[in-house]
């Protein structure tokens, strides 16, 4: 059975820096930005 992380929510100090880090360094995909 294939397993995957589907949703993730994080509380961060610097929102823009966190988005840059997770999308550029860890290659995560930002699906929705409601901030």
From TrEMBL:
Residues 4-35 form the VOC domain. Transmembrane segments: none annotated. It comes from the Bacteria. InterPro entries: Glyas_Bleomycin-R_OHBP_Dase (IPR029068), Glyas_Fos-R_dOase_dom (IPR004360), VOC_core (IPR037523). Pfam families: Glyoxalase. This is VOC domain-containing protein. It comes from Candidatus Enterococcus dunnyi. The lineage of its organism: Bacteria, Bacillati, Bacillota, Bacilli, Lactobacillales.
